[in-house]
Queue: 2 jobs
Job 1
Amino acid sequence: MKSTLIAIAFIGFVLSSCGNAAKQKAIAKKQYKYYCIMHPSIGKDKPGVCAKCGMQLVERDEDK
């Protein structure tokens, strides 16, 4: 019984983690001209710094 509950909890954790990854990919799809290499979802259309870590934003490669 105890192992069944642990297995169910583990499966729930894995499924919820997959949902977060999909959400982060959707956020990262918004293309800014400049972005933070540590936080790709953070960006601007002009040079600046990351709002989370303060790193300099780098220009996105247009080939990707």
Note: The CA atoms of residues 46 and 53 lie 17 Å apart.
Job 2
Amino acid sequence: MLRAFSNRNYRLWAAADLVSVTGTWMQVLGLNWVVMERTGSATSVGLSVALSTLPAMVCGPWAGALADRMSPRRIIVVAESLHVLIALLLALTVWAGLPLPVLFGLTASAGLVGTVEGPALGRFASQVVPRSDLGNALAWNSVVNSVGRVLGMSLAGVLAALLGEALLFCLNAVSFTAVIVTVLVMRPAQFHPLAVSTPEFAGVRAGLRYLRTQHVLLVLFALGFVLSSLGRNYQVTMAAMAEGPLGAGPAGYGTLSAVFAVGTVLGGLAAARISAYTMPVLLATAAATSVLQAVSGLVPGMVGFALMLLPIAAGAVVIDTVKSTRLQLDAAESMRGRVLAVQGTVAGGAGALGAPALGWLSEHLGPQEALLLAGAVTLLVTGVAALVLRELARRSATAPQAPAAEPALTPA
């Protein structure tokens, strides 16, 4: 269960990740609540979320091609430095009460930097553990991220009430600095290098040609898009439930966010105990989570809704862990950055479309009805994905075996 922690570089990376995620979620909570407080609109919160993810839809493939050709450490150091600057500018914007368009512009800038950094982070995380420990490392990454989310949300509520939201962005800038220092002090000799693309297999077009032949990966992308857009944008629906049917206000939103984070910790621990990250595990968890989401809005009271969030959040982490493991292990090493970039693009599209859509549904149909409709759609799509994957497996079993056309590789 603790295999990944036998690697020194991973222990350092996990510690830095905990600090960074804590700061990030402090900023997320502060940003979402500043927008909700100024506008009183769940749609505006959805727009803020969309602006942070929209760059991934446009720039993701190029970020992946860059990660497959350059040192991920170099990309991470530059990107984290830019995150420090943007966080400080956000703090100044909130403190000075500058107009929302300024806030939205900085949010989009942070999303753009995160898009460029994302595939490099994925490749770098694969280099701090051997291939056999990758699934376990991804599961523990989820635990670390969840613990950081709990800490971030909990601290954010207290600090924002005492000292104001601007402080949250300053602390996030400090957390990015911790990542830069950690990356620089790691031991390169203990990395597990991945192959990089030769020039003839580099670039966005080569990556897209490769993905067209990987039908299972394409199904995972499609399923992930639906689950993320309608089943994972709880930032919007929790805010709408807290402001509307539950009548809990900002304190209730913070409580629900913390409960959701606790559920992700439980999900990460469950994922770390999984011995094989297989498609049946992914599909069964997606189906169960969809059913729970559909009925969550119908459970009366703040306590009832919070209790429903626990298994939903846990299931979301198991889904992400299995899906990410399969995407990385089933893809060629020289294409992993571009596969991760497409995954980021899919997630960006899900946020850009799903968050405003859920906000609109919450305002016009009601938050409870929005949860019911979204859960029903994700359950239907999960069933369709199961049928398609079964058909692909049947065709693969009956097709004559031919040597796989693997992209040319160059040692990192």
Note: Residues 73 and 183 are 7 Å apart (CA to CA).
